[in-house]
Design a protein that fits this description.
Elements: H1 2-19, H2 22-32, H3 46-60, H4 74-89, H5 116-139
Helix pairs in contact: 2-3, 3-4
């Protein structure tokens, strides 16, 4: 836990600087006003995009969906989002904070079934999302 605390202490000036930018404040304001779809551009490196998304999630407390163009992009997004989600909160392990819903891997018109692991991961992710939504609704 000391490493997480030290990392958080070292990164706080960087994170504060990002939160104070006009661009970040603009996106945060749009989300807080109820925008359902927000497109963020200008961040070239994927880890930078994941950091911005983790900060926005922390500031708003909302759930976000990241749609990627190809299945191969999911793993790096998941890794980056998990890292930044934990880091901006100053914790070492986040567990299942980031839910990944993989594509079904099969052509729906071909008649074949997706791999069993893919079906399992999709079912677990949908269960996590439903459980999280249900627990948030019951707290209101």
């Amino acid at each position: 836990m000391t490493i997480a605390t030290e990392t958080n202490y070292i990164l706080q000036p960087l994170l504060s600087g990002l939160r104070d930018t006009a661009e970040f404040r603009d996106v945060l304001d749009r989300i807080n006003r109820g925008a359902r779809v927000v497109s963020i551009s200008g961040l070239v490196a994927q880890p930078a995009r994941a950091l911005a998304l983790a900060l926005l999630q922390r500031e708003t407390g909302k759930q976000f969906a990241v749609v990627v163009p190809a299945q191969r992009d999911i793993e790096s997004w998941e890794r980056d989002l998990n890292f930044w989600y934990c880091t901006v909160r100053g914790i070492a392990e986040c567990g299942d904070a980031v839910a990944v819903l993989p594509a079904s891997e099969s052509d729906p018109y071909a008649g074949g079934s997706p791999h069993a692991e893919t079906l399992e991961k999709r079912a677990l992710t949908l269960w996590q999302l439903a459980r999280h939504s249900w627990s948030r609704a019951s707290r209101r």
